[in-house]
Amino acid sequence: MRACAQLGVVAREGRTVVRALRAQAPLALVPRRGVTGAAGAEAVVHLVGSASTPLAGDDVELTVTVGPGAHLVLTGVAAAVALPGAGRPSRTVLRATVADGGSLTYRPEPTVVTARADHETVLDVRLAQTATLHARDVLVAGRTGERAGRYRGTVRVTEDGRPLLVQTQEIGDPLLDASPAHLAGHRVLGTEVVIGPGSEPVSPACGEGWSLSPLAVRGMLATAVGHDAVTAARRLAGAVAAAASHLVGP
Known about the structure:
The protein is mainly beta and 250 residues long.
């Protein structure tokens, strides 16, 4: 199934409002409304997928535009389960542009890569010089007692055309997953990219199951592994907290 979605937000009178919203099955975009939706300066939009997505052959692309001074939180509501199909890979792409003074927080729920699945994701974010990004990704290699299928995930973040981060992660290769330089036998891999408006460097750091790496221009990349999603998420939060004093958010 081929689907395209579009989301655009702008700043207006101290708040961020949704200006463009278009989605197609199997992806729905649901803004938070009511009193809670109007309480903050940011717009919160939930990503809602069907129960059978991503399925082999699915090709879903979401284009996001964050205007100057606008703040968007894009969050999932349930884990995505990558399923096998008729021998064709599935693909999910998020392309975002964040203008000066704007921010994008991307927090999808974990992606579970089931046996015989073949799934690819792309996160492509273009930042202005004073824009900020906070993007988290948690991958689960198979359901309980199940060997994972194949997964490839690429994160590409640029600032006015120059690269801040270009990285591809893969899971599903037994030799690679067992390597101490990759999953080291764990089932869950979590990454978090935090790019603030300043350029103050972050010192490299590591702990049990996590590491923190500074990016060349600004921001940092946290990586964590665990035997379950709760442990990996806790280690990922610890890595981000280790650098919190160096990064200034919106």
